Amino acid sequence: MQGILSNLRSTVIAGLVLTVITFVIVRVLIGTGFGLDHAWGAFLFRWLHVLSGVMWIGLLWYFNFVQIPNMGNIPDEQKPAIGKVIAPAALWWFRWGAMATIVTGLILAFMNGYLVDAITLGLTDNGGSTPIGIGMWLGAIMWFNVWFVIWPNQKKALGMVEASADEKAASAKMAMLFSRTNTLLSFPMLFCMVAAQNGGFA
Description:
Blueprint: H1 2-5, H2 8-30, H3 38-70, H4 79-111, H5 115-119, H6 130-157, H7 165-198
C-alpha cells in the first residue's frame, strides 16, 4: 500500500480502479446489470464535470485563501521556490481543470437537452433553465478570465515570458485582481449549479 501511496500516478490509478470496482459492486448488488445507456453516459460526464470543477475551483481557492495571503510572510530567499516551482505547476492544473470543466459541462448540457435553453437563460423554456444558465455563464466568464487574462499575466509575473520589472508588477496585480474576480464569481456560480439540480430556486 505504501508503494501506491508514495507515487501520485499510482495513487490516481488506484483511485480510478477502486471507482470501477465500486461501480461493479453496486451494479451487482442492486441488480441493474451493466448496460451503458444514454443516462449512464450523462452521469459519466456529470462525474467528470464535478472532478474537473473540484480541481479548478480547489486551486482557485488555494491561490486566494492560501498562497496570495501568505506570500508576504515568506522570506525573500524562499519566494523563488513558489514562483519557479509551485506556482507554474499549480497554474498548469488550474487552467486545464478550467478547460476540462467547461468542456464536460457543455457536453453534459447537450446530452441532457438543455444546452440552448441554458445559454439563452431560459428564454426558450419559460425560465426552466435560467438557474443552470446563470451558472454556465458565470463559469464561462471565469474560464475566459483563466485563459485570456490570468494565465497571460501570470506568465509575465513569473518570468516565463520576457517582461520588464514594471510589467511584471502590473501583470502580477492584474492576475491577482482577476483571480479574486473568479473567487467572487465562484460562490454564485456554484450556488446556481447546485440549486438548479436540487431545488434551490423552488
